[in-house]
Specification:
This protein has 35 helices and 37 strands. The chain has 946 residues and is an alpha/beta fold. An eight-stranded mixed sheet has the order 1-2-4-3-5-6-7-8, sandwiched between helices. It has an eight-stranded mixed sheet with strand order 15-14-13-11-12-16-17-28, with helices on both faces. Strands 23, 24, 25, 26, 27, 29, 30 and 31 form an eight-stranded antiparallel sheet that branches. Helix 3 crosses helix 5 and helix 7 runs antiparallel to helix 10 (258-265).
Length: 946
């Protein structure tokens, strides 16, 4: 079959495509002059009177074309027109792809064909096009009106004039653009890549989809004779039919698709492939690239797997990374990649205002400086204990392992683990020796400072020993709650990409079944057969026998200590980065605010705090319960833990306390006496209503009962006691009162607008009183960032008040005249009615007070700004039947909401079940309930999956 030549063409009218972007450019390549269709925003910018202050060179992969970059082009033009930095986008269609020139060919492409355009050829093509076009900016302003030809001005003059040049690529365009950037580092300021691959390991097969396509006659059939390869690629993203058709536009016939097969044929699958040596050279060049870099990744990609990202990160250790956890191969079709790219570029090169203020600023910031600009920097001093005054310095906190090391010869009890049968207690001396031996054993095994270690061990002595051993060697503990389930844990652990796994048998089983990364270490010896089965190289028991060597060098305070994953109740679980300084500051908060002294007995039924005992010198007791099921904690179990640890302090979640109160009648005299000795009861994970506090007080009659408010990103932020809850309830305020900021925490408010968005400007004092907003906090023990989520880290930070770094909590509510914090839900659950934004939590507290209601969720139905308020009730534990609520109840709730909140209630529904998170059994998934309510009100079935 012959394939005729064809000149480059201008694309037809396509959705989201501006015809003004299209140009035909002649460029001289080593094998002759060719015509390229190029997306170029320069004419559109100059038509608007704008001159580029930077250039983005974008390269597509196979089988896409420059249409892939249409949203980036539009975003840059709109940003420039709005006064932002003016970025020019140049995105050529690779030769014989998109609407670029087609060459004549005699036969189908094959890996060995002399007609195949190789990787080296494509690099030369890209260089020829961009060199031609960059000369337009380096030359006179009327260059755009001249015929396209190679310019006489060196593009280095562009970069030297304070005009940054940045590359971005996807798929095979990713590796090609990175390679060109590395070889052009004299003019390139930074590089960005979406899903791509540089190196194919010899010991693993190439991904299955490519294997199938490369198999013999399948290559021409799948890529050229049919559009199968193109269709499969288009299925790897959330594309409309119109968008898919636009991507198909240049590839309607077999002749148009010759280059798709050509590109696949040129994929080096082994060392014998003609392009393998060039790809190896590119890989080495990329490893020498030391400019700022950004990697954007869709983890659901079936071709560019995690191992390719791991390889890229090893070559570009300075690179920032943002993972869109729900995205596949066409990540830019699934998520706001243009917004991410422009934010990152602002962090590297400054905004238009920055450039105007400092004309000489054209060079890139270093990776660490850029990260701090993007809100990764932290203030080391804790804030004050008021919401209206700037932070003040406090003495530095101790190292995480300082108390454990100081008590190396102490024979008193350090930890009691009721998860063991029988219960196991260990002394401080034993704990120090075990953790030090394991630490030395880990070093012998090859664990290095900074290595990540996934902890698949439930709370107890084994986890404590493993964690503190890792802290001693500077390894980073990765903790993903088993409550996430296998799917959620797979996503979390894969994103953290640990080098090691320490696990009990259930954890190792899941690791093997779901292919979690990391070399395996079992907790107990498994024997030769099971060790091979679970790929366990050794055990903690074996490592604990390692001889001690010289003192281990302590990690730096700024080194990462742990990655703690959120509950995933509002989207994919996020890894929260805690440094050694963060954890030390958290331990100091417990000591300072709640008077947790060395020697205090602490029963920890709340997993995040089960590991802090050795850091604060407390005797930690892990009660007999299932970590993933808080309701399994009984009164007897907590009493036995109190007795064993002589505890005066208890920490658990509200769901756990409900079951403790419900089973208190089974306590014997000794257990009741032990509970009566408890001085402090803390409950975290969700707000605690007064009725639950009263029930807790029946179990612990002499304890001060507190409900600190916090989150994975900041475990202790505000506090309220039982008397405070009673006082707040008496005011009739909307929402759940969580008290005032604790010592060391400063609080501000970002007001919410009619569209449900929180403002950039923060307010405090009188300006923050009694208005709905997002809570923003600053403290020494706040997270250092989100792991592998550059955009999320940047978005969560504010730096515009008192010179502090602030964390956006995503929690909403108001601050009353007494300075108390009232929670009213999450930012994404704001209902935007015609009368203004409504926090669902405030109205839910009102609804939940009704005798017929167990719990509720307030959701919005309809367009933003005109949403109707709908109350969804939980049928569990009530006499209500799923469907429409009884008319009498509906009328009563409607009247209450109108009287107290001034809002109109459209409907009251009863759901057959309430979706909640597993960790706390209390965080309601309002988004799912809203979707269910929308279907029901539209006439859909009441029962069915939520």
């Amino acid at each position: 079959m012959k394939f005729p030549a064809r000149p480059a063409q201008i694309p037809p009218q396509l959705p989201e495509w501006d015809p003004a972007w299209s140009r035909i450019v002649e460029a001289a390549t080593p094998d002759g002059t060719h015509e390229f269709h190029v997306l170029d925003t320069l004419p559109a910018l100059r038509a608007a009177g704008l001159e580029p202050a930077g250039t983005i060179l974008a390269l597509h992969g196979n089988p896409t074309w420059s249409y892939l970059w249409r949203r980036l082009a539009r975003a840059t033009v709109e940003t420039a027109r709005a006064g932002g930095r003016v970025w020019r986008v140049i995105a050529p269609d690779q030769l014989e792809m998109g609407f670029s020139e087609r060459l004549a060919h005699e036969s189908m492409p094959t890996p060995k064909s002399h007609e195949v355009r190789r990787i080296a050829d494509r690099l030369n093509d890209f260089d020829a096009v961009v060199t031609t076009l960059l000369a337009e900016v380096a030359g006179s302003e009327d260059a755009a009106d001249r015929p396209s030809a190679a310019g006489t001005t060196n593009p280095a003059e562009v970069a030297g004039s304070g005009h940054p040049i940045v590359t971005i690529g996807h798929d095979w365009g990713g590796v090609l653009s990175l390679g060109w950037a590395a070889r052009s580092s004299d003019i390139v300021s930074a590089a960005i890549s979406l899903n791509t691959a540089v190196h194919q390991p010899e010991d693993v097969p190439i991904p299955a989809p490519l294997r199938a396509t490369l198999a013999g006659p399948m290559l021409p059939t799948a890529t050229v004779l049919t559009d199968w390869f193109l269709q499969v690629t288009m299925s790897l993203g959330d594309l409309s039919a119109e968008t898919k058709d636009a991507f198909h536009a240049p590839y309607r016939s077999a002749a148009d698709r010759w280059a798709i097969g050509n590109f696949v044929a040129d994929i080096p699958v082994d060392a014998d492939h003609p392009s393998d040596s060039e790809l190896q050279r590119i890989g080495k060049d990329i490893a020498a690239f030391d400019k700022p870099a950004l990697l954007v990744w869709g983890p659901k990609d079936p071709v560019f797997l995690e191992r390719y990202l791991r390889d890229l990160r090893s070559r570009l250790p300075q690179a920032d990374l943002h993972r869109f956890e729900t995205a596949s191969h066409l990540v830019s079709e699934d998520h706001d990649v243009p917004g991410l790219v422009l934010d990152w570029l602002d962090a590297q090169f400054g905004t238009a205002a920055d450039t105007a203020a400092s004309p000489t600023e054209g060079t890139t910031k270093g990776p660490s400086e850029a990260s701090s600009t993007a809100a990764s920097a932290r203030e080391s001093a804790p804030a004050t204990d008021t919401a209206d005054a700037p932070a003040t310095d406090t003495p530095p906190v101790r190292a995480v392992t300082a108390i454990l090391d100081a008590r190396r010869d102490d024979e008193t009890i350090a930890s009691v683990d009721f998860a063991q049968n029988p219960a196991q207690q260990i002394s401080w001396r034993h704990l120090w020796h075990v953790t030090t031996s394991i630490a030395n054993g880990l070093l012998d095994l090859g664990v290095k400072p900074g290595d990540r270690v996934s902890m698949l061990v439930p709370p107890g002595n084994n986890l404590t020993a493993a964690l503190y051993a890792c802290l001693k060697v500077g390894a980073v503990a990765v903790v993903a709650d088993a409550g996430l389930g296998p799917k959620g844990m797979t996503r979390a652990i894969t994103s953290a990409d640990p080098q090691w796994i320490i696990g009990e048998l259930p954890g190792l089983t899941l690791a093997g079944a779901f292919g979690w990364p990391g070399r395996r270490i079992s907790v107990s010896p498994l024997g030769p057969v099971r060790s091979r089965l679970f790929k366990a190289e050794t055990s903690l028991t074996a490592l604990s026998r390692t001889e001690h060597r010289a003192e281990l060098p302590p990690p730096s305070a700024d080194d990462d200590a742990a990655i703690l994953f959120t509950s995933g109740s509002t989207g994919p679980a996020k890894g929260v980065r805690y440094t050694h300084a963060d954890i030390s500051a958290l331990a100091a908060v417990l000591t300072r605010v709640f008077d947790v002294r060395e020697g205090t007995g602490l029963v920890a039924g709340f997993p995040p705090f089960a590991l802090l005992g050795p850091a604060i010198g407390a005797t930690s007791v892990t009660p007999d319960m299932s970590v993933t099921k808080p309701k399994t904690l009984t009164a007897s179990a907590i009493a036995d833990a109190i007795i064993a640890g002589r505890a005066t302090m208890v920490f658990a979640s509200p769901a756990a306390y409900r079951n403790v109160a419900a089973t208190a009648g089974r306590l014997d005299a000794q257990q009741r006496a032990a509970c009566a000795r408890v001085e402090l009861v803390l409950s975290a994970g969700a707000p605690v209503p007064l009725e639950l506090m009263d029930a807790i007080a029946e179990v612990f009659p002499n304890a001060s009962i507190h409900s600190p408010y916090g989150m994975t990103e900041g475990l202790l932020l505000t506090d309220i006691d039982r008397a405070g809850v009673a006082e707040a309830d008496a005011t009739g305020g909307l929402g759940v009162c969580v008290g005032r900021p604790i010592d060391g925490v400063e609080l501000a408010l970002a007001p919410i607008d009619a569209a449900g968005n929180s403002a950039d400007e923060l307010v405090q004092g009188e300006a923050s009183r009694d208005r709905l907003g997002e809570f923003v906090v600053s403290a020494a023990h706040i997270k250092s960032g989100y792991d592998n989520l550059w955009r999320t880290t940047a978005d969560s930070a504010r730096d515009d008040l008192h010179g502090l770094t602030w964390h956006r909590t995503n929690d909403i509510g108001h601050i009353d005249d007494a300075g108390r914090v009232w929670l009213e839900g999450r930012l994404q659950h704001v209902v935007t009615t015609a009368r203004g934004p409504v926090g669902p939590g405030g109205l839910e507290a009102l609804v939940d007070a009704d005798a017929q209601v167990s719990r509720s969720a307030v959701v919005g139905i309809g367009p933003v700004g005109t949403q109707a308020l709908v109350v969804v009730l939980d049928a569990e534990g009530t006499a209500l039947s799923p469907g429409l609520a009884p008319l009498e109840l509906t009328a009563r709730l409607r009247e209450q909401i109108a009287e107290v909140g001034g809002h109109d209630l459209a409907a009251v529904l009863v759901a057959p079940e309430f979706p909640t998170d597993i960790r706390h059994n209390s965080k309601i998934d309002r988004s799912r309930l809203a979707a269910w309510a929308d279907r029901v009100l539209a006439g859909g079935p009441v029962r069915g999956s939520l």
